[in-house]
Amino acid sequence: MCGIVGYTGAAPAEPILIEGLSRMEYRGYDSAGVAVQQGEAIEVVCRKGKVSELAHTLEHFDLDGTCGIGHTRWATHGKPSEANAHPHTSCAGDIAVVHNGIIENFAELREALIGRGHVFKSETDTEVVAHLVEEAYHRLREAGTGDLRAAVAEAASQLVGAYGLAVMAEGEPGTLIVCRKDSPIVVGRGEMGSYVASDIIAMIDATRDVVVLADDQMASLTAEGIAYFDMDGNPLEPEVTHVDWDIDVAEKGGYPDFMLKEIHEQPRVIRDTLAGRLSGGALTIDELDMTPAELNLIDRVYVIACGTSYHAGLIAKNLIEGWARIPCEVEVASEFRYRNPIITPTTLVVAVSQSGETADTLAAIRDARVRGAKVFGITNVVGSPVARESDGVIYTKANKEIAVASTKSFLGQVVSLTLLAMLLGQSTGRLTGGQIKLLFSELADTAEAVERILAECGPAVEEAARAMVDATSALFIGRGMGAATSYEGALKLKEISYLHAEAYAAGEMKHGPIALIDENFPVVAIATDSPVYDKVVSNLQESRARGACIIAVATEGDEDIAKHADHVIYIPKVRDAFSPITASVPLQLLSREVAVLRGCDVDQPRNLAKSVTVE
Ligand code: G6P
Predict the structure, then answer these.
(1) 54: which of 47, 187, 353, 357 fits an S-S bond (Cβ 3.0–4.6 Å)?
(2) Which CATH code for domain 3-244?
(3) Which CATH superfamily is domain 250-456 in?
(4) In angstroms, what CA-CA distances link 535 with 399, 487, 525, 528, 538?
(5) Pocket lining: 308 vs ligand 1, CB cutoff 6 Å
(6) Best residue among 306, 389, 584 to mutate for probing ligand 1, ranked by most atoms within 8 Å of CB
(7) 328 in active site
(8) Above 90 in pLDDT, residue 286?
């Protein structure tokens, strides 16, 4: 996610902005920029790529102004480029804006602004804010009825969506106006002046006494102090929070480990991955660079990946075959690369990789392309080898994932693959416009369902974790979408808790694994509402009859399941096709809880690496 910093005070702003942006690099971004007030002018410098590249470019500028704003951007509207990087400016260049979040009504605002003579320089949603502030600022100033704060409030009142904003104007040197709605903004006073950021980590060296703005609050920062207002300009007395975390904890956003923090970021990942994908009732994934007619020629799909990403592929198979009726095979990249798969020019290979640099996946991509396949990459890392070497790429918008065990990246992959399956269904004509709209809206609703799971599942997960902590082995079972989900659940548990776990399609129980079952062998069952629910319940009963402790992930309202399970984790009802998105979350929480109870290092499990660049 994007990052905001701002400073006004006695010291040169540029190094403070660069330091703040560097601190937020872990969040992931594709471009960075600063705007510094030089005398009465605002100087803007942006670069695609790393903050270090921006810092290097700034060596050629002589910026010594003491007021400025900075930003790291992760593209949502408009590709990663220098023109789309923030800060964005008004027509006259006298207003500069940085923004986090998504402005949903930007297209209509942009059209209206263009109609009133504004000229746009970027494709971003953010730029409308610079022009809206420009209009309001000059009108209010000419009438003598308002200042930059009032102009920002007026502009914000026209925005629909989420925003954290920091704005400055040539006409009010040394002043920064900030405000927020559904996107974090933190301000604080340090010895050298006033600071703002979207993440405490960016200003923790300057101050540990901060004000976390609430929605619809604003602040005006000058070198002398900070004043707080509501959006109507009425003064506020906000509550100051003292941050006593060390840097390490600050990076974890107050969570005890990165894994838990990343699990909690998933509703945001779902929303960001879907942002801008449905327009005029049709699904678009421009980055794939293929026309509907070209897509329609695809007659075979391979999903290739490793580890957790492979499990995202197992989920996608059901969706691609179900919605597009195109045969789809899912294969671990280390196998695919050494066999002789059937590939023709109408084969689509989808390479899924969080890191974008897994050696086996890359080798499989190269092999597939040599054989004439079209390759789409799904990755979390902008500009990674998988992105560069694929014909088209979908970015998962999970932001940098630090815990070795993948959680939010997995969900980002599942959502991206779901979009791809819908797109194939759309281009083959098997899904109508109405169906696409309905599916998209239900897919978007999973963000709220995951939010509820995160808020409500804790006690049930803890109870289930206590029931399995002393086991030496566990079995995860499910059918259909639940089978695919159970594979990822078992992997998560073994990765971080070192408790042996395996997953089986529940119907296969009788063909072997049932021999293992006794009272020391917990069975985790995905028993959500689905066409195969009754079959899963039968398999539960078979396990229970042999003494297994049963932990069921079930749909809210299913009281019957309690008769067949020792512990039930209820989750909200969603369409069966989307159940892996919701059902995976309690399984992530469960494995983390077991790992914590067993005293394991949740973020850095032994023997594992975040990205595997060797064969
Ligand atoms: C490693 C990681 C896993 C990941 C796998 C594939 O094993 O520990 O979390 O799923 O690599 O990585 P990729 O970056 O290609 O998704």
Answers:
(1) 47
(2) 3.60.20.10
(3) Glucose-6-phosphate isomerase like protein; domain 1 (3.40.50.10490)
(4) 38, 18, 12, 11, 5
(5) yes
(6) 306
(7) no
(8) no
Does 358 contact ligand 1 (Cβ within 6 A)? Answer: yes
Sign of the Cα torsion 6, 9, 14, 18 reads: negative
Q: How far is the CA of 586 from the centre of ligand 1 (A)?
A: 20
**Tokens 């986090």 belong to residue:** 100
* Nearest residue by C-alpha to atom 2 in ligand 1: 610
Query: Which among 417, 449, 395, 444 is positioned nearest to 319, based on CA atoms?
Result: 417
**Confidence band (pLDDT; 50, 70, 90) for 1?**
low
**Residue-averaged pLDDT of the chain:** 92
Q: Which atom number of ligand 1 is nearest to the Cα of residue 386?
A: 15
CATH architecture classification, 457-603: 3-Layer(aba) Sandwich (3.40)
Tens-digit pLDDT profile for residues 189-244: 999 999 999 988 899 889 989 998 988 999 999 999 999 999 999 999 988 888 76
Q: Which of 2, 306, 457, 600 is catalytic?
A: 2
- Per-residue pLDDT tens digits for 372-424: 999 999 998 776 788 888 999 998 988 778 898 999 999 999 999 999 999 99
608 Cβ inside 6 Å of ligand 1? yes
CA 405–ligand 1 middle distance (angstroms): 8
Q: What tokens appear for 545 in the block?
A: 């009859």
pTM given for the model: 0.71
Look at residue 615 in the predicted model and tell me its pLDDT.
60
Radius of gyration of the CA atoms of the chain, in A = 26
Task: Please name the residue whose Cα sits nearest to atom 5 of ligand 1.
Answer: 307
| CB distance 440 to 393 below 8 Å | no
Query: Do the strands 550-555 and 523-527 form a parallel or antiparallel pair, or are they unpaired?
Result: parallel
Angstrom distances, CA of residue 611 to CA of 26, 309, 567 = 15, 12, 35
Residues of the chain with CATH 3.40.50.10490: 250-456, 457-603
- Ligand 1: atom nearest CA of 361 is 15
CA pair distance 87, 169, nearest whole angstrom? 12
